[in-house]
């Protein structure tokens, strides 16, 4: 079992600051994930002291990608050396944004894998994600992602 406190999420996502929108993975298995992200003043998606809608969608995508991305790594690979992943949103099927959090607050994102198709080179998946600030639902969405390990030749 992976000790999530020892994982540096930046080793597992292709994003780098200032575009990294996940600080910590709280729970992770083959079907679900939850992440934490503190909204900082210097974030790219801050408008009038609020983390905007685009930032919320990007946080959802990065959260969702960790479910499928996990399968490209060995369970004991806490440094993220086993794969070189790239991923992108292939479709946003539904998104509802109820509110945007203010700078200084922390959001919790919870995602669930609803379908997945794998080939030797990539995975296509559909996921549901909800983002909360404490008990308040900020975003609900359904999206498709494509994830590919660049170390695997076509």
TrEMBL record:
<dbReference type="InterPro" id="IPR029069">
    <property type="entry name" value="HotDog_dom_sf"/>
</dbReference>
<dbReference type="InterPro" id="IPR016776">
    <property type="entry name" value="ApeP-like_dehydratase"/>
</dbReference>
<protein>
    <submittedName>
        <fullName>ABC transporter permease</fullName>
    </submittedName>
</protein>
<dbReference type="Pfam" id="PF22817">
    <property type="entry name" value="ApeP-like"/>
</dbReference>
């Amino acid at each position: 079992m992976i000790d999530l406190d020892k994982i540096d999420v930046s080793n597992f996502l292709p994003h780098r600051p200032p575009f990294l929108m996940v600080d910590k993975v709280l729970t992770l298995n083959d079907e679900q994930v939850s992440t934490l992200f503190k909204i900082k003043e210097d974030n790219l998606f801050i408008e009038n002291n609020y983390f905007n809608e685009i930032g919320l969608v990007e946080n959802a995508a990065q959260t969702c990608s960790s479910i499928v991305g996990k399968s490209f790594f060995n369970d004991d690979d806490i440094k993220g050396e086993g794969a070189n992943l790239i991923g992108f949103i292939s479709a946003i099927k539904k998104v509802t944004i109820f509110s945007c959090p203010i700078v200084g607050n922390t959001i919790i994102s919870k995602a669930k894998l609803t379908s997945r198709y794998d080939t030797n080179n990539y995975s296509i998946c559909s996921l549901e994600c909800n983002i909360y600030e404490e008990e308040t639902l900020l975003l609900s969405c359904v999206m498709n992602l494509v994830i590919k390990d660049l170390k695997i030749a076509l």
